[in-house]
């Protein structure tokens, strides 16, 4: 079994698993890492610097004794800093003595990805990360899928929202420097704001564009395995909450995810004019 990337809706609840399967990369490894570097996730760290983890039975997702040979050591990684802080406060209330030594720390998605890839190469089958999405965004993803006729009861993963043309297999792009990129948003609200600006600037095309939802795992796997040149345009846009939190840390946290120049989350999103083919 490969090292697992685990997805859940609440802390400690595992609802699925995927493995990063080594294949011929569609994008060079450094380009995949570059696209993940600006995305923060939040973990709970102990006083010694190690991150808080649980020993889980991979067959049922239940917590087990760490002496069990079948265990998978699972580290929760929160998409929302607020969610991480909420869990931290609960841990401190349940165990005041040990809890006071815990803190929430940011890590880039690229760093987590590289650690999982290294575990993959070393054939470590007992290391996993449980990515915990924002429940509001999961609810938005489910509502969007049902609105589009999908009969779904749950969304397993971290939802991403992207604007796409209905009549053509193309994505809406925005400028970044001298290039144009396809933004995939962690917040539906950011995707809606982009769509509204496009509709105002191109009212004759307003009815032809919609918001679609994908999951983060699928996007990462596609970056690794697809030969579609459109992948060079993919840009993961962190939530406003994440960006605001990271600004409070700079420059005191050198390992924190750094915001790219011309990050479209807060600038130059007023020109969503072009399309990008999806092949």
What labels describe this entry?
alpha/beta; Trna Endonuclease, Chain: A, domain 1; 2 domains; 5-stranded mixed sheet; 3-stranded mixed sheet; 25% strand
Written description of the protein model:
The chain is about 30% helix and about 25% strand. The chain has about 280 residues and is an alpha/beta fold. The chain folds into 2 domains: about 100 residues, Trna Endonuclease, Chain: A, domain 1 (3-Layer(aba) Sandwich); about 110 residues, Trna Endonuclease, Chain: A, domain 1 (3-Layer(aba) Sandwich), CATH 3.40.1350. The strands form 5 sheets. It has a 5-stranded mixed sheet with strand order 2-1-7-5-4. The chain has a 3-stranded mixed sheet with strand order 10-11-13. Helix 1 runs antiparallel to helix 4.
Strands, helices and their partners?
Layout: E1 4-7, E2 16-19, H1 29-37, E3 40-45, E4 54-56, E5 72-78, H2 81-94, H3 96-99, E6 103-108, H4 109-121, E7 127-132, H5 135-147, E8 159-165, E9 170-172, E10 174-176, E11 179-185, H6 188-201, E12 209-215, H7 216-225, E13 234-237, H8 240-249, E14 275-277
Parallel strand pairs: 1-7, 5-7, 11-13
Antiparallel strand pairs: 1-2, 3-6, 4-5, 8-12, 9-14, 10-11
Helix pairs in contact: 1-4
Calculate the mean pLDDT score and round it: 81
- What is the CATH T-level topology of the largest domain? Trna Endonuclease, Chain: A, domain 1
Instruction: Give the tally of β-strands.
Output: 14
N-end to C-end Cα span? 32 Å
Class by alpha and beta content? alpha/beta
Radius of gyration: 19 Å
User: Low-confidence parts, pLDDT < 50 over ≥5 residues?
Assistant: 1-25, 259-270
Element string (H = helix, E = strand): EEHEEEHHEHEHEEEEHEHEHE
- According to CATH, what is the class of the largest domain? Alpha Beta
Strand content: 25-35%
Characterize the main sheet. 5 strands, mixed
Task: Please give the count of helices.
Answer: 8
| General shape | globular
Number of domains: 2
Helix proportion of residues, in percent?
25-40%
User: How is the largest sheet built, in terms of strand order?
Assistant: 2-1-7-5-4
The assigned CATH architecture of the largest domain is 3-Layer(aba) Sandwich
């Amino acid at each position: 079994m490969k090292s697992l990337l685990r997805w859940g809706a609440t802390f400690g609840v595992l609802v699925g698993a995927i493995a990063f399967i080594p294949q011929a990369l569609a994008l060079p490894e450094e380009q995949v890492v570059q696209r993940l570097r600006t995305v923060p996730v939040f973990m709970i760290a102990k006083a010694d610097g190690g991150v808080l983890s649980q020993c889980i039975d991979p067959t049922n997702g239940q917590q087990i004794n760490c002496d069990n040979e079948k265990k998978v050591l699972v580290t929760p990684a929160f998409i929302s800093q607020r969610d991480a802080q909420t869990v931290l406060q609960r841990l401190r209330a349940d165990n005041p003595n040990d809890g006071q030594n815990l803190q929430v720390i940011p890590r880039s998605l690229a760093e987590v990805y590289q650690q999982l890839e290294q575990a993959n190469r070393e054939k470590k089958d007992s290391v996993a990360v449980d990515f915990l999405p924002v429940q509001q965004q999961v609810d938005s993803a489910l509502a969007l899928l049902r609105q589009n006729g999908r009969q779904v009861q749950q969304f397993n993963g971290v939802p991403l929202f992207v604007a796409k043309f209905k009549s053509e297999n193309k994505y809406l792009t925005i400028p970044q420097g001298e290039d144009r990129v396809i933004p995939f948003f962690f917040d539906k609200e950011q995707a809606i704001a982009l769509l509204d600006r496009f509709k105002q600037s191109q009212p004759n095309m307003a009815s032809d564009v919609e918001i679609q939802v994908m999951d983060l795992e699928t996007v990462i796997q596609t970056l690794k395995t697809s030969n579609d040149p459109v992948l060079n345009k993919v840009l993961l846009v962190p939530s406003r909450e994440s960006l605001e939190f990271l600004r409070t840390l700079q420059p005191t946290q050198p390992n924190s995810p750094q915001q790219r120049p011309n990050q479209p989350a807060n600038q130059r999103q007023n020109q969503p004019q072009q399309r990008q083919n999806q092949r």
